[in-house]
Amino acid sequence: MYPTFVKQKESNPYNSTRTLEICGQSYLAHTADPYIDDAISLAALWHSHQITYPRIIHLRNWIRENDQHGHNIPFKHIKDIMGCKYFVDSVIEAEFSNIGPHYQENFYASLRENERIFFE
């Protein structure tokens, strides 16, 4: 079910969670969290040296923002890490496009963080 960099450690039907080990680090996934599975699916297309826990979690968080804030930027067609980086850039742009100039520093900080995550 999962690529080699992910192992499902346990599943708890009582609180609808599953514990995943992603690149050797634990992640508690809730049943209502399809975003981690989307991020894992995209990361499975990257070169093995590109796959890291922080990148996967960062991508998961922006996939969630895209969905929950109704930006609806498509991402399931993406085939590589650069496509994922550009997807996150697009969500950041959409997130900050209508909230005014007083959030401009947050906009630039988010872009810098995305750059750091994907190129570090």
Task: Tell me, rounded to a whole number, the average pLDDT.
Answer: 94
- Strand order, largest beta sheet: 1-2-3
> What structural category characterises the helix and strand content?
alpha+beta
Low-confidence stretches: none
Helical segment count: 4
Largest beta-sheet characterization: 3 strands, antiparallel
Element-level helix/strand string: EEEHHHH
3D architecture notes:
The protein is of the alpha+beta class. The protein is 48% helix and 16% strand. The protein contains four helices and three strands, in the order βββαααα. A three-stranded antiparallel beta sheet has the order 1-2-3, with no helix packed on it. α1 (35-43) crosses α2 and α2 crosses α3 (81-96). The chain is globular, with a radius of gyration of 15 Å. The mean pLDDT is 94.
Please provide a brief summary of the model.
The protein is of the alpha+beta class. The protein has four helices and three strands.
Overview features:
single chain; 120 residues; alpha+beta; three-stranded antiparallel beta sheet; 4 helices; 48% helix
List the helices and strands and how they pair.
Blueprint lengths: L5 E7 L4 E6 L2 E6 L4 H9 L9 H16 L12 H16 L7 H16 L1
Antiparallel strand pairs: 1-2, 2-3
Helix pairs in contact: 1-2, 2-3, 3-4
